[in-house]
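tool=predict chain=A
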Amino acid sequence: IPQLKTRAFEAAASKTLMLVKKDKFRYLEKYFTPGEDFIYWEPGQLSETLAKVIPNWNSYGFMIDNAYKKAINCYTLRNFYEDFILDKK
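tool=predict ok
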């Protein structure tokens, strides 16, 4: 079972483009949308993904902004309480 780590929210809140290794859980998709808020990279293809992103850096600004807006609205004490304390099953 995957664990939610704060790293993605911290990256988004600091306006960092998130490159996320694709796995079978895709847990981050509960909070962020691939292609709108972050970029998946396939295992073994990080170099290829970076080769596409780096020369076109300016065209990813919208993803950085989208993720930032979601992070500052999502990563709050109220949401943590509602999602993890009240929603325990």
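The mean pLDDT is 90. The helical segments are 7-13, 46-53, 61-74, 77-85.
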